[in-house]
Amino acid sequence: MRNPCVAHRGWSSRAPENTMAAIRLAIADPDVEWIEIDVHLSKDHIPVVIHDYTLRRTTNGRGDVKSLTADELTSLDAGHWYSQKYQGEPVPTLEQVLREAVGRCKLNIELKTDGIRYPMIEQKVLGCIQAYRAEKEVVITSFHEGTLFRMRKLSSQIRTGLIIDGWRNTLPKELKELGSDFLSIGYSRLNKERVALLKNAGIQVMAWTVNEKRAIRKIAALDPDIMICTNYPERWHELRLQSVIS
Fold first, then answer.
1. Which CATH number covers residue 108?
2. Would 65 disulfide with which of 40, 152, 207, 237, CB 3.0-4.6 Å?
3. Domain that holds residue 38
4. pLDDT digit string, tens, across residues 25-70
């Protein structure tokens, strides 16, 4: 099994998701090629790394991410919900992640917008990426096609990819029209025919979120180039080692 591993929200089985603790664990593993993170904008338009639109689930804050400044967000505790060990782990900024990841691990940066929230998110995220000269080390993904279209207009150097939990045979054509060569798709939607269709169109496929060993094996058997996005890189490691031994 040689499928690339993508650490979902960092190594989120071993540290709180989307924190520098989880991201550093993934960066430290030379076999983990990619990290997937989620980005919102703070009240003062700074890209910050957190999954939900609201703060309640993963921090000690309340309300919407967009209602707090970056300084206020980075002062929240985003680790205590996971375990006492990570109490005080802050919400990171995208800049902090780039500073540590560039040159060491590639980033799949999901923009958490529906086209109405965060109307400047593409420009702000692109500015961070350009500041670290990381254009070739990232892919920008989103459920919202307009967001991908705007990012491509801003920069021809940035790769973009659609996120979807479904299937339609027109996906290769749609991605081509968006200028995208990457598809992030719910793993249960994949089969050999669909993977072949995408691969023949030059589209890189990332399957999410593949956590159970049986599912990892199933996806890996479809094609060795499918990227496996998982909360459990340790399980990917174990199966990879087994395939080498066998």
1. 3.20.20.190
2. 40
3. 5-245
4. 999 999 999 999 999 999 999 999 999 999 999 999 999 999 999 9
Residues 6 or more apart whose Cβ sits within 8 Å of residue 84: none
**How far out from the chain centre does Cα 37 lie?**
4
Judge residue 95's burial from the number of C-beta atoms within 10 Å of its C-beta, 0-12 exposed, 13-18 middle, 19 or more buried: middle
The b/e string for 210-235 (b: 16+ C-beta within 10 A; e otherwise) is bbeeebbebbbebbeebbbbbbbbeb
Helix or strand holding residue 229 (H, E): strand 227-230
Q: What's the token pair of residue 155?
A: 């920069």
Residues of the chain with pLDDT under 70: 246
Catalytic residue set: 8, 51
b/e code 45-79 from CB counts within 10 Å (16+ = b): ebbbbbbeeebeebbebeeebbebebeebbebbbb
Residue 197 has a pLDDT of: 98
Question: Which pTM does this prediction carry?
Answer: 0.98
d(CA 182, CA 196) in angstroms, rounded, equals 14
How many CA atoms lie within 13 Å of 24's alpha carbon, on the beta-carbon side?
Answer: 8
Instruction: Report how many domains make up the chain.
Output: 1
